[in-house]
Structure formats: C-alpha cells, structure tokens
From TrEMBL:
Keyword list, A-Z: ATP-binding, Nucleotide-binding
Transmembrane segments: none
Any one Gene Ontology molecular-function term assigned to this protein's record: ATP binding
Name of this chain's protein: AAA+ ATPase domain-containing protein
Basic residues biased stretches: 8-20
Biased composition regions of type Basic and acidic residues, renumbered to the chain: 151-170, 1153-1164
Length: 1231
C-alpha cells in the first residue's frame, strides 16, 4: 500500500500495482460546489427574469400614462381651437356691428356667451368648478366634496347687481363687462367702468359728438390685482360701445419707452393710428420719471402728453403703476391730470377674496382632482391666506401674484413629502394636500430634525445666544398653535441685531439662523447673503438708495447679513457726528423697505460691536430702532478661558497638532492678558497664537540637527511665550528693574507685596484681579522719576498678567479736556480706549481741577473706570505735585475711592543727585572723579553747588542732573575729539561746568516776571541754607570753601505765609546743635590786640550761629519747594486766564466774521429768490403765450386754408403760411 496526500492535504492510499486514485474528499467538495453554483445561477436567472418583468411592466405603465396625458393634451387643444374660432367669430360680429350706424346700441349687438371660452386669460375666474372625485382607499371624504359657492354668494357686489339689472331690464349685452364683473373684488373699478359706459351711452342717445371726450385712465394699485387684465377688457369695452374706432390693443412699459426714446413712442402711436385707432397700455408708467431713465423718459412723457391731446377720440391711453410711484409721475407735468381724467383704484384683495382665488387656482390646475385636508374652505386654507394677508397695505404687496408664489411653496413641500414617502416604500396620493404641505411643519417638532439647530448646540460657548434663539423658537411654536386656534399670532421680528466682539461666531450663527428659519418654514430659501456698508455705498446722489433697494430685493426669502453695520454712521473722535448724506440715505432706505411685520419673507441681521452699534442707533433714523430692537439683540459674550481651551484643542485636532499641558496653560494665560486689548479676537486670537507658535517652534527645531527633528509637532510653553516663566523670577526681576533708580526702596517694597499677593492667589487657583490696585496717584516735584516708575510698574503688571502690553500711553490734561460742550467725555473715552491693556499716564493731572470742562473730564474718568469695559483692564496713573493732586482728589469724592493707592516722590538729596550724575557720565564710558566719595575734595564742592541748585524755583532733581551729565559728556568728547581713546573729565571741569550751569539758572530765576514767588522761595532758601562739610585743613581748601559757601543772609524775616513761618521756626528749633565750649587757649606771641579782639568776636559769633541738621534741612527743602510750586501755579493760572481772555476775544472776532458771512449769504439767497421768482413769472407769461399760439396754430390747421399744410408764421396783423400764398388776419382768428 502506498500513502500520499492530495494537493489540498487530504490523506489517500492505493495498492502499488494500481494507479493512484483521486481524492474522495476533494471529489465530494467539488460536487457540493457545483450544486451551490447551479443554485446561485438559478437564483440569479430568477432575479434577472423578475427585474425584466418589472421593467416591462413599468414601461407599459409609462406608456399608458403618456397616452392618458396625450389624450388630455388633445382635449385641451380641441378646446383651445374652439375658443380661438369662437373669438374670431366674435371679432367678426363686432366689426360688422360697428359698420351699422345707430343712435342706440341694438339689443343683440353685443350678445355673447358668459362662459370662459371667449374671455381673455383671467387669473380670477368665478365659475363653479367640478366636484373632485374621491380616491378610495387613500383618505376619508372631507369637505372638499361640497360644491364651492360662487363669489357672488360670498359677498354682495353693488356693481354686479346693477349690471345684472341692466342685462335683465334693458337687455344689455357685453361679454367684456361680464368678464370684469366676474372678477373677484375690484368693486370701485367695476363701478367706474359702469359710469364710463353710462356716459358713453348717454352721449350716443343724445347724438352728441364724442370725438372730444377724453377717456384716458390711470390704474393705481399693487401688483397682482388684475390691472393688465382689466386694461385689455377696458379696451374691448370702449371699442364695443363705439367710443373707439377699433379694438387694437398695444401693451408696453415705461422702461421700454425710456429705452426706445421718442422715436419708439412715435412708432407705437403711428402703428395704432394705422389700424384706425385703439388703446395703448403703458404699464409701470412711473419708470419714465425715475432717476435712472435720465432725460429720455421725461422726453417720451412730454411727447405722449401732446399725442394724448392730438388724438382724442382715436387713441385711449391707460397708465398703470403703484400708488406712491404714480404720485411722483403725475407731478412731472400739471397738465397730466387733465389729460387723464379717470382713475381706477385697484385695492388689495381681502382674505376671503384671496381664499377664493387660491381655491380656483387649485381647481383649475388639477382639474378638480386635488383634495385638501380640512377642505377647501377649511382651517389650513384659511391659515395660508391669513399669513399672506398680513402683508396687505404695504407697497409692493403681491396679491394674486404673491398667492402664486405661496402656492409654489405649498407644491414644493408636497413634492418633498411625496418623494420621501415613495422612497420609504409607501404609496402616497399625488392628489392630496396635507396639513404640513399647506401650513408647514410644527416648529416644536421640526426643530428636533433640524441639522442647523444641532450644529448650533454643538458650538462652544454662546450660552446667551442659544437661550435667546430657543426663546424665539418657542414663540414661533406658540404662534403656530395660535394660528391653529385661529387667533392672531404674536408679532415676532426676524430682523435682529448681533452684538459682540470679533471672533465670537456672529457670522457662523447668522448662517445657521437662516437655515433654521428655512427648516421651520419661516423663510422660503434660507440662503445667507453677507454684505458690508461699503456694498451699499453709491458713487453719486441717489445711487446709494438704488443699491440698498437692489440688495434688499435680492434678499427676499433669504438672510441678509450687514457686517460691521455701525459703519453706516459716522462719528468723530471729539464726540460729534458728521452728516454723510450717502450713509443717511442707506439707513433711510432700510427703514422704508424693511417693515419687520409678520409674513415678511426676509431676515436682515445687523452685526457689530455693542458700543458702536448703540451709538449708531442713538443718532440715526429713529425708525431703525423700531425695525431692529437692539434691546432684544443676540449678545455674543467673549469666550471664557475654559471655552478658549476647548477651541484650542479643537483647532489643534483639526490641524493634526499637539501641545503639552504646560504649553496650553501658557497660551491661555497669553489669551487672558490679550482680553484687556480693545476688540479682543476670541477664536480668531486663538488662531493667531497658533500661527505665532508655529513660527517659534520652527525656529527652535532649526537649531537641532535634521536627524533630531521629530515629525510630530508638539508645542512647548516657550513656543507660545518665550518668557513664560517670568513669574518665577518676579522678585529678582523687580530688583533688577529698579537697579538704575535711586531712592526707590519704598516703591520696591510696595510692588513686591503686590507680587506676593498675586503669586499666593494664583497658587490657590484664585484671580488676583480686584485685590491688587490698578489706579495710582504719583505725587511729587518734577524730575523725581514719576514717568520712569510708571513704565517699570507697567512691566511688573504685565508680568502679573494684568496688562496685554508694557506700553505707556502718556497724555496730559489737554488730551482729555474738550473745546466745547459735549466733547470732553468722548475725548476722555478715546484716551481710555487707546490705553486698554496698557498704562495710561496722565501727567500734570492737577490741571483737571480747573474749569468746567476739566471737571467734566474728571467725572467721566470716575464713571468709566467702574464700567466693565475699563475696570481692571488698564493701569491709570495720575501724576503731579502733591498739593495740587490733593486738591484734585477733593473735587470728586468718587476719585479718592477709585485711586486708593499713592506713591510719593520726594526731592532728592545732594548725595542722591551726585549718584545720578556719576551714573550718567560713566554710562558713556567716561572717567569721572569720585563724586560720591565723601572724602574727596570734589564731593564737598559739588554738594555745596547742588544745595544752591535745590533752592532754585526751577529745580528739576534728576532731570537737571541728567542735563548736567549731558553737558559734561559733551565737553569730554569735544575736548578729546582729535585723540580717541579713554575719556575723562577732571575735578576742575566738573566744578566749573556745574557752577556755570548754576549761574545760568540763577539768572533765569532773577528775571522772573513776578517778584512774589522768587522772594518767597529765596526767603525759604535763606532759612534752610547750610554750610558744606569742612574741607581738609589746607590753605587751598579753605580758599575754595570760602568761594563756594558764599555770604550769609542773616536771620529770616517774618512773612505773610503763616504756615511757612511756622515751619521755619520749627526748623530752627530742631536744627540747633550744642556747640562744645573751647578749652582755655593762650594767646600766641606776636599777635596784636586788634587781631586777638577780632578773633574772639568771630569765635563768639560762631558759637552763637545755630547748626542745621540734615533732617531739618530736608524739611525746610520741602517747604521751599511747596512755596515755589504754589507761586508757580498761581502764575500759571494767571497766564491761563490771560490766554483764555485772548481766546475769547478771538472767538468774538470769529463770531463777528461768521455773522457777516451769514448776512452776505442771506442777502445772496434773497437775490437768488427774487431772480427765481422773476424768471418764473417770465416763464409763466411765455407759457401762456405759447399755449395761445398753439391754440391759434390748431385753429389755422383746422381751417384748412393752406392745402400744402405749411407752418403758419406770425406777422404784423395776422399769420402767413410758410409758402407765402395764404394770409389770415387776426380779426378772422379772433385774437
């Protein structure tokens, strides 16, 4: 036996003397596979056969449907041909009737059939339609099976009753009048037509000449009221009554005539006259006087005016248009009203009339087969026409035309429903209108299936907007139920105002808002159109209104977004507004076109920042507030940090990026600081930070080797903020920040305390805002470092995360105070806006305490600093002299509470001044003597000179030291210009240059315009003057000391300032130091008596002279500075009053100049008025003469004297034809 395996691995065996057998298992599997394949083949053949049978069956049904439709078309064609033949027969009968002269209409001259075969296509037939047959098995019978009553059964028509009386009693026959009477509504039109008919018939019975009767008429009304249909019937009525020789009817429009010009209008008139006469129907006639038609339209109208008069009895003109537009049309020429004596007003259809028209539309379109849920007079049909009827009375209300649009929406909803049901395998009835087809879906249920609503709910943040939109949808649902109960719906305006910062999703939500309204059936389209105010602006006067109307018209059924809508109003930085006629015209057009009433198929959204939008609404057309209720606006709040983090994660995920947790925390901190900036970008700011992080990450990766650069991008903290760990080195940074400032230990301690508070609260997860002050008072004399400290404080607050930038916005009181009433507040707000997220440093703030406008600035500042827009979002520093700042704080009690912290800057001591001077010189790499070393000779000299500087009224502390330093640096470079290398200044150079500067400053003070401030300061200086420290006991030193010290002014005298005297006395009492008694000394030999006596007197004087301590000297120094500041401010106040007086005088001169200009302008206007009046009178006289001349010319032509038809020329005593052979005197003409 031999064993083996088949190719599939099955075991098999056979005897050696026989060939190997096949594998039984493989053969069985092959047999099973063959059977399965045969079964599959049979199933496939069966499916193919069934599919072929289905296709053949469907083809057979399609053939049957096509044959049935063709049969219906053939029947309709037969009816149309019969109607055409009947119409031709009627035209022939009318023509034959007009050839028979008669003084009265024959009873059978106008007979006609009252059916619809001989009528013009009429959108409002009133014949009873056949009752639709039920479709068994689809819907139960409803009220649609009841016969529809005739219109006359619904409402009594006096005009039709009168016509029926004439037909019954007088055997009157006129199928055109029958058609007019069968139309729905139009009661006034029908009465007017009967009056015109009666006038014509009376004239015929009187055998009166009707060739001079003007039968021109104007049709006034909204679209869709049947003006064109009535015009055709009116022409037929006049022709059948014999008022016109022929029934020719030519239809045109005002725009077409304006385009074709006078030549086109002349051809139309000639064509009508060529047929014997007829009617010219001019639809939308007002287009001849529109601005866009320029002068061509008016020229055509002037031509037609003459033709109306020249062709009386031959041509009747029918002018149609909207009421408001036609008013301007008739104002073009006063003679237009007399040439068009009849006016037929076409009123808007009432709800019951619209319902009847809708029923007839459905009846005619579906040949009576369409059935309606609730019946054709049922609740849902009434809701349809009531919704449409809410637009009644507005210009442009579409009436029957709008009803057609409404029914198109109904048919579209039905088509969507039928398609969906057929897709689901149902067998819907194509000839049944459900409730949802007619009135739309229930909003409370439709919103659950609205994808736009679901997308809105998934958006991050927007809690306030979502709640507002949900409340609005709830009101829409309530209105839906009220309509079902046949109650008036609550008025809801779709037009909304979206208020919020950029990047908060206003545009995205607006698009979803439009789609939601479309899904709820509120809007027919739901498409979103985004425009800006620039899209509305025109190039010339009147163009902006046209642009606005075109944009609003194109937005019907859609959502129109006007982004940055506040740009429709122009305001100035000073608080006033400028009149922009273009923007004003746009706003006025929006107010006129947007009504915000129920049923308005349009949604207009105004987007913008809240403060600017509120300002616009307060200053433009008040009607805008009624159309767009800003108090019910959708407010888009700035995103919180948690929401910004979600947005960040979403953007990282969408871009396949990553960031560490520390990096995310840093970017949120950066975004939090950015909130303080105006117009924070929210989601847009997140995208900006990602862009910056990408750039920094790329730079960081470039520093690595290509092999070490990972493919995945993971942002680190330094990618979002290179100095992200500044808070960990806050104390070190603080010391380093103030290392170049002298005498700032108290400031460093106070700011260090703020840093510790912020760090502690941050460690506990709390926000330090509100705990750390953001408003400061900087008190002190000039040059003590107030501005420098403000910049450093800004850096500290930026590190704390309170500010978005380190920038310091410096301004003075003049930048806050306005020049006229109402300007100060806006100017103050402008400065606050500029400083948002920064430091606002108001120097010389004490000037805000002077004058009414300055007080207004303080009040505005106090008010604005407590508002959310500015509170804790900027650092405000008021700087100035201590006494004046205290006075400023007393003006407004709220100012003290809003500026709780103050930093006092004192006058610098001579030692501190020398430190500043030495640093300023060495900063330029110049060697200086040891100015700050008390043991050096130059130190004592410089201290003496600086003490003299301090006594000057113009002392500027560090500012003067830096000025002196620049002088010394300049001297060093000038002296060593030819020998570059190490630079130095000697002690003598420093001393002499300092003394020269002191002398210059003393001369300035000696030449002050008023003596009082200088005298007071000098007296204080005398009291506080102290001798310099004694130099080493050398002869040269003694000489220099004598030169530096100067003479004494003696003891101080009493002054008129009691507080200064008291301070001086206190200084003396505290400044006396006990002088040790000299031991007994022996008189040296050789000393004369006179010399010894003088020496003893000098010793006694020295003991009697009081010694001043450093503390007493500093106190008196402050007293002297305060006294000078007081006198200086008094001088400044006096100068400002002088300047104000000069400005007042200049204003008076300017006012006088303006008055003279106004007088001249008034005189010029009066002269122009008189000239215009005289010109008008001359034109009136010429017009009368022209009319008289025209009448003479008409009479001459009617006399037929000149057979050649030449023009008649006026001569002395009469008229002669242009050919010269005929003359008629004035007596014969009666002129």
């Amino acid at each position: 036996m031999l064993d083996d395996k088949c190719p599939k691995g099955h075991q098999r065996s056979w005897k050696c003397h026989k060939p190997p057998r096949g594998c039984n298992k493989c053969e069985a599997e092959a047999l099973r596979a063959q059977k399965e394949a045969q079964k599959a083949l049979r199933r496939q053949e069966k499916r193919a056969r069934e599919e072929q049978e289905h296709i053949e069956h469907m083809a057979k049904l399609d053939t049957m449907v096509a044959e049935e439709r063709q049969r219906l078309k053939d029947a309709q064609l037969f009816r149309d041909r019969a109607a055409a033949v009947h119409q031709k027969e009627k035209d022939l009968a009318d023509a034959q009737a007009m050839t028979v002269p008669s003084l009265a209409p024959l009873p059978n001259a106008q007979n006609g059939v009252g059916g619809s075969a001989g009528k013009e296509p009429d959108p409002m037939p009133t014949q009873a339609s056949p009752t639709p047959s039920n479709n068994p098995g689809t819907q139960p019978p409803d009220s649609a099976n009841s016969p529809i009553p005739k219109w006359t059964d619904r409402r009594q028509s006096p005009a039709k009753e009168e016509w029926e009386r004439q037909k019954t009693m007088e055997n009157a026959r006129n199928d055109a009048i029958d058609s007019v009477m069968d139309m729905i509504g139009l009661e006034e039109v029908k009465l007017q037509i009967l009056q015109i008919k009666a006038k014509i018939e009376v004239s015929i019975r009187q055998n009166a000449d009707m060739s001079s009767d003007r039968l021109n008429v104007s049709f006034l009304g909204n679209p869709g009221t049947g003006k064109t249909t009535v015009a055709r019937l009116y022409a037929r009525i006049l022709a059948s009554l014999g008022a016109l020789p022929c029934s020719t009817f030519v239809e045109t429009t005002g725009a077409r005539l304006a385009h074709d010009g006078v030549a086109g209008a002349k051809k139309i008139v000639e064509d009508v006259l060529g047929t014997g006469g007829g009617t010219i129907f001019l639809d939308e006639a007002y287009q001849l006087t529109e601005e866009h038609s320029q002068s061509s339209g008016r020229q055509v109208l002037d031509f037609l005016l003459a033709e109306m008069e020249n062709n009386v009895g031959k041509i009747v003109f029918i002018l149609a248009g909207y009421n408001k537009n036609m008013e301007k049309f008739f104002e073009h020429n006063p003679g237009l009203t007399s040439r068009v004596p009849y006016t037929l007003p076409f009123a808007d259809y009432q709800d019951d009339e619209l319902l009847w028209i809708l029923q007839q539309r459905i009846e005619k379109r579906y040949n009576g087969k369409m059935r309606i849920e609730g019946g054709k007079d049922g609740l849902y049909m009434r809701i349809v026409v009531k919704r449409l009827g809410r637009g009644r009375g507005r210009p442009g209300f579409g009436n029957a035309r709008a009803l057609e649009t409404t029914y198109s929406k109904i048919a579209a909803r039905q088509a969507v429903r039928l398609t969906r049901e057929r897709k689901e395998g149902l067998r819907p009835d194509d000839f049944y209108l459900y409730k949802t087809d007619l009135v739309g879906p229930d909003p409370s249920k439709a919103i659950l299936k609205c994808s736009a609503w679901d997308e809105l709910q998934k958006m991050i943040g927007l809690g306030t907007v979502k709640e507002s939109l949900k409340a609005m949808i709830d009101r829409i649902s309530v209105n839906y139920q009220r309509e079902l109960n046949e109650k008036a719906p609550i008025e809801i305006s779709l037009n909304r105002v979206f208020l919020g910062s950029p990047g908060t999703g206003k545009t995205s939500v607006a698009k979803l808002y439009g789609q939601i309204l479309a899904d709820l059936g509120i809007l027919s389209n739901g498409e979103v159109i985004v425009k800006s105010p620039a899209d509305f602006m025109g190039k010339f006067i009147g163009h902006s209104e046209a642009n606005a109307k075109a944009i609003l018209a194109s937005a019907m059924g859609k959502v129109l977004i006007i982004d940055e809508a506040y740009m429709l109003y122009t305001s100035t930085a000073g608080g006033g507004s400028t009149t922009d006629s273009f923007k004003t015209a746009i706003v006025d057009t929006i107010v006129a076109e947007v009504q915000s009433v129920p049923g308005e198929d349009r949604c207009v959204l105004l987007l913008g920042y809240e403060d600017k939008m509120v300002e616009m609404f307060q200053n433009v057309n008040p009607g805008l507030s009624r159309r767009f209720a800003i108090e019910n606006a959708f407010r888009f709040e700035d995103f919180t940090n948690e929401e910004l983090l979600k947005i960040l994660n979403l953007k990282l995920k969408s871009q396949d990026l990553e960031a560490t947790d520390e990096g995310k925390a840093v970017v949120i901190e950066v975004l939090s600081r950015g909130r303080n900036r105006p117009n924070f970008g929210n989601a847009g700011e997140v995208e900006n930070q990602l862009g910056l992080a990408k750039g920094r990450h790329q730079l960081r990766q470039c520093a690595k080797k290509p092999s070490e650069r990972p493919s995945d991008i993971v942002f680190e903290p330094q990618d979002f903020d290179p100095d992200y760990d500044r808070g960990a080195h806050a104390s070190t940074n603080l010391d380093k920040l103030f290392e170049d400032v002298v005498g700032c230990e108290d400031i460093i301690a106070k700011l260090g305390g703020y840093q510790q508070i912020a760090q502690g609260m941050k460690a506990n997860g709390l926000d330090a805002r509100g705990m750390i002050p953001t408003n400061f008072l900087f008190k002190g004399p000039p040059g003590t470092g107030k501005t420098t400290t403000a910049r450093k404080v800004g850096q500290i607050y930026y590190d704390l995360g309170f500010l978005a930038e380190v920038e310091v916005v410096e301004c003075s009181a003049s930048d806050l105070i306005g020049q006229f009433i109402g300007q100060t507040g806006p100017k103050t707000r402008v400065q606050l806006d500029k400083a948002l997220g920064k430091v606002l440093f108001i120097d010389e703030a004490y000037r805000l305490a002077e004058g009414h406008f300055a007080t207004e600035a303080i009040n505005e500042l106090v008010d604005q600093l407590t508002k959310p827009k500015y509170m804790d979002k900027l650092l405000v520093i008021l700087a100035g002299y201590a006494q004046e700042i205290n006075k400023l704080i007393s003006i407004n009690p709220g100012l003290s509470s809003r500026f709780p912290e103050e930093i006092t800057f004192k006058n610098m001591s001579p030692i501190q001044c020398l430190q500043i001077l030495e640093r300023a010189i060495r900063k330029q790499n110049i060697q200086t003597p040891a100015l700050t070393d008390p043991k050096s000779q130059i130190h004592g000299k410089m201290v003496g000179l600086i003490e003299e500087f301090i006594t000057l009224p113009s002392w500027g502390n560090a500012r003067d030291m830096k000025t002196l330093g620049n002088t010394l640096v300049g001297f060093a470079f000038k002296a060593n210009a030819s020998s570059p290398g190490a630079l130095a200044v000697s002690e003598d150079d420093v001393f002499h240059l300092t003394k020269a500067m002191l002398k210059e400053r003393q001369e300035r003070c000696a030449n002050l315009p008023t003596a009082l401030p200088l005298r007071t300061v000098q007296r204080a200086a005398d009291q506080s003057q102290a001798p310099p420290p004694p130099p080493p006991p050398t002869e040269g030193s003694s000489t220099q000391a004598d030169e530096t010290t100067g003479p004494s002014n003696g003891s101080p005298q009493p002054t008129e300032h009691q507080d200064t005297d008291a301070a001086s006395d206190d200084v003396e009492s505290k400044g006396k130091i006990s002088v040790p008694q000299e031991p007994n000394v022996t008189r040296d030999g050789g000393v004369s008596d006179a010399t010894w006596a003088q020496l003893q007197a000098d010793i006694a004087a020295t003991k009697a002279e009081p010694k001043i301590s450093d503390e007493a000297f500093g106190d008196q120094q402050d007293v002297a500075s305060t006294a000078w500041e007081t006198a200086h401010q008094a001088e400044l106040a006096f100068q400002r009053l002088q300047e104000q007086k000069a400005r007042d005088e200049a204003d008076a001169q300017q006012l006088k100049h303006r008055q003279e200009e106004a007088r001249i302008e008034r005189e010029n206007a009066r002269r122009k008025r008189e000239k215009a009046k005289a010109d008008l009178e001359r034109m009136r006289i010429r017009q009368i003469a022209q009319k008289r001349e025209k009448a003479v010319q008409d009479k001459l032509r009617s006399m037929g004297v000149c057979v050649q038809g030449f023009q008649w020329i006026k001569q002395a005593g009469g008229y002669r034809c242009a050919g010269g052979s005929h003359f008629i005197g004035n007596e014969r003409l009666g002129v």
